[in-house]
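Internal ticket #5521
Category: modeling
Description: The requester needs a full-assembly model to guide mutagenesis choices. All entity lines are attached below as received. Residue total reported by intake: 482.
Assigned to: D.W.
Attached entities:
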Amino acid sequence: MTYCIGVKLDQGLVFLSDSRTNAGLDSIGTFRKMMIYERPGDRFMVMLTAGNLSISQQVREILQNERLAEGDGPPITIWNATMILGGQIGTESMRLFLVYSAGNFIEATKETCFFQIGESKYGKPVLDRMIHPGTPLDEAAKCVLVSMDSTLKSNLSVGLPLDLVVYQAGSLQSDQIVCIDEQNPYFRMIRETWGQRLREVFESLDAPEWNGEADALAPLVVPARRYERMKRITHPGERIV
Amino acid sequence: MTYCIGVKLDQGLVFLSDSRTNAGLDSIGTFRKMMIYERPGDRFMVMLTAGNLSISQQVREILQNERLAEGDGPPITIWNATMILGGQIGTESMRLFLVYSAGNFIEATKETCFFQIGESKYGKPVLDRMIHPGTPLDEAAKCVLVSMDSTLKSNLSVGLPLDLVVYQAGSLQSDQIVCIDEQNPYFRMIRETWGQRLREVFESLDAPEWNGEADALAPLVVPARRYERMKRITHPGERIV
């Protein structure tokens, strides 16, 4: 599987992808899922792919070699991989797309400013909480790394190294491109600190009070206020085989 | 959809379920997915179901009315719903099972002490980080509620009210059974405090340093130490249509 994120913010774009592929539990590979197309001063684009690797690579190949196609018509492409495609051309606005395997696509808006592909659920809660169009680029980079950390922790099919790109709106190039491996000091710090502080926050939350007094701040059960206790099946005939 | 969790700890068992069902976006219902079978002093069992509601309810019905079956043979049951089943009978050990829709099952162990059914991915990272067999019951109850909060925040198909049960090993009954709705003070506190403190922890993490100096604690890119920057495709012919 795969986990990739693309974020479009007022300040720019952020992309993160993992690199694990497999064709069975004993055939695990590491392949780049991120392609960066940059012509400084003219355009800057990033493509992230999930799905069948041979087809993803074929699509890339076709896109890269399109100038070799004969005639003037558009080349015929085979789409069988979900992908995130984003960037900026000349004086146009930045754009970020999620392209479905059927070939149709949606574009990021103020309301939905990030897309995920692959194993997206584990890392979605932190993005939902933290990312909005006004989020600064560095904070968004931090957030996608935390989201990736949660995914790596819960799902074996997503793996290091990661590819991270941060693009500043209007720059038409980027120097903030990095491949993050096990030794990367920042990602190691994120993994250790986030896990540890999450535990501290968790421990700082009050334990449930099952018999809250009238003055309790946040009781789980307050008999006086008649929070309904659930009924149980208790008659003697009941049994489970 | 559904989100249910069952946890087996040294101290006891914890169960949590949501109550949303739907058969289309405009046909949303609230149904109990948790059934509690208690005969104080003899046995205490909890069943959580996910999947086709009519079949879940039929299975419950068959289990509840088994005494009415004719003859001495075991009743014939239809299994088409994943379920979590756990509890304790007499002097036996507590047991917790995940029953697949095909009818086969697995049992919780020290290594895998919790099961989830339904929309399980959003809320898995926090369980992975916090739950182990030694976790106290109150802490586990807090943890399953945090896990449910993350799921509610990221997935519309999981909804309040929640049913929570905490069972203490050996007690063969439980008074810690509660139905949690929007007004429950403890769950409201969890939702607000967890989100806010998560944000504080997030903000307390250092922003990435793209050009780390030799004395930086956790730089994202350290040119001196040759953390590989990714190559880009920059030759002029490259373009994406």
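Resolution: model delivered.
Comment from assignee: The first strand of chain A starts at residue 3 and ends at 8.
Ticket closed.
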